[in-house]
Amino acid sequence: MKRQIKNILGFTTSAIAVLSLTTSGTVSQAQTQTEPDQTIAQANPIVHCLVVNIERGQLAVRRSPNGEAIAGLNNDNLVRFIRHQDMWYYIRVVRGPNPRVNGIEGWVNGHYVECAWD
Question: Is the pTM value of this prediction over 0.70?
Answer without folding.
Answer: no
